[in-house]
Amino acid sequence: MFFKLTERDLDSLREISNIGAGNAVTALHQMTRKIIMLEVPKVTLLPFGEVVERLGGPEEEVVGLFLRVYGDARGNMLIAMSRKSAEQLIDILFPGQSSVFGEMEISALKEIANILTSTYLNAMGGIVKKIFIPSIPSFSIDMAQAIVDLLLIEIAEVSNEALVIETFFKSRDNSFYGHFFLLPDPASIKVIMEAVSKKE
Amino acid sequence: MKNSGSFNSIGIGEIGVVKEAGTLTIYGLGSCVGLILFDEKSRTAGMAHILLPGPRLPQDFTNELPAKYGNEALKALLKMVCKETSKDMLFLKAGIVGGATIFSGAEESAIAIGKRNVEEMEKQLIEMKIRIAWKETGGKAGRSVSFSLPYCELRVRTLKEGWKIVPQLK
Fold first, then answer.
1. Which stretches of chain B sit within 8 Å of chain A by CB?
2. Which of B68, B72, B146, B105 is nearest to A107 (CA)?
3. Are B133 and B145 within 8 A, CB to CB?
4. Residue B68's domain is classified under what CATH number?
5. Chain-centroid distance, C-alpha A69
6. Residue A146 to residue B142, Cβ atoms within 8 A
7. Of the residues B10, B32, B78, B97, which is catalytic?
8. Which residues 86-125 on chain A approach chain B with CB closer than 8 angstroms?
9. Fewer beta carbons within 10 Å, N or C terminal of chain B?
10. For residue B57, is it within any domain?
């Protein structure tokens, strides 16, 4: 990593992510009418191998919605959930759709991802007075490690660890759960930290 | 780095070696590439889990992972395999697995990573005059790969198709 993050820095990151994720699940609540619980974000510097453990191990089947973050800071974002959660979510939002991941279902999930990540990034950006823009999400269902590979690429070119901001959410009736992952590019961590300290 | 155990799982950027009996495994290769080297004479096999073709800057001083970059991985792997053999290695075979495109429609450079990883390894194996005996690359699905001795068998698993044996190229 280019510079050391203090405990306080990690706290600030946790704080702004919490607001981002909080807004995102509010949007999800409005769409699904489900009560959604949000865990406090985990902000950690993880060696590459460990990122995937958060998703239940490297071969676990995972639905991933991946997008790049552009704007004042760059990074990768991933919404990951189990196949069952993704199917449940589609079923709640679009009753009567089939449970196979056809074009319609994938498109619906991408749309959800788009709404959630835009909300997340807008809320986070609003606090630190920066603009974060999500790219169009792409979809995959595959082994967890295969999905995570792409998250690590930008970071791997300059570091052996990734700054991982992870937030777990689940509906109170246990019909679905998932994770937000935000991995800022190493060069952008400084930008975010400076913006955070200005805010304080 | 792990050595001659019965069962080794190799993380990103790491290298594993087994001699005579044992299995080397990488779980969930996406755009990453698994490189396998097998020396028939000493019955030694090595596997590397490669993330990127090469560093963006000429040199990455922070790197502590021997197989993170494809352009360094083959040499590092050769060194590890050589350590296990007293003789000159003359009967080397290689295998390349992985380099898939998991997220189609994602950023262009990211898409090309899998393909670039495979190309880099092919280029290096040709330069070192090592025969490619197994190849299972590209496509859209993540793969787990295992190589086991003494059977000298390369297996690949996808979520859709399960484990299957990769036949040796002629």
1. 11-14, 27-32, 51-52, 55-57, 60, 62-65, 68, 100, 102-107, 110, 113, 141-144, 157, 159
2. B105
3. no
4. 3.30.1330.200
5. 11
6. yes
7. B32
8. none
9. C
10. yes
A58 closest CB neighbour out of B28, B63, B100: B28
Please list every residue in chain B whose beta carbon sits closer than 8 Å to the beta carbon of residue A64: 102-103
ipTM: 0.87
CA dihedral B104, B105, B109, B114 (to 10 degrees): 0
Residue of B nearest to A145 (CA): B28
Question: What's the confidence (pLDDT) of residue A50?
Answer: 86
Strands (E), chain B: 2-3, 7-9, 15-19, 22-29, 33-39, 44-50, 92-98, 131-137, 143-149, 153-158, 162-165
Distance from CA of B113 to the nearest CA of A (A): 8
3-state secondary structure of A17: helix
In a domain, B9, yes or no: yes
Rounded to the nearest 10 degrees, the angle between the axes of helix A7-32 and helix A186-199 is: 90
The domain in which residue B99 lies consists of 2-165
Beta-carbon contacts of B7 under 8 Å, excluding residues fewer than 6 positions away, are B22, B23, B25
Displacement of CA B132 from its chain's centroid (Å): 11
Token pair recorded at residue A140: 């995959």
Structural domains in chain B (count): 1
| Greatest alpha-carbon span in chain A | 51
In a domain, B170, yes or no: no
The model's confidence at residue B136, banded by pLDDT at 50, 70 and 90, is very high
In angstroms, the Cα distances linking B157 to A146, B3, B142, B164 are 12, 23, 8, 6
Name which of A80, A188, A180, A164 is nearest A123 in CA terms.
Answer: A180
What's the predicted TM-score (pTM) here? 0.90
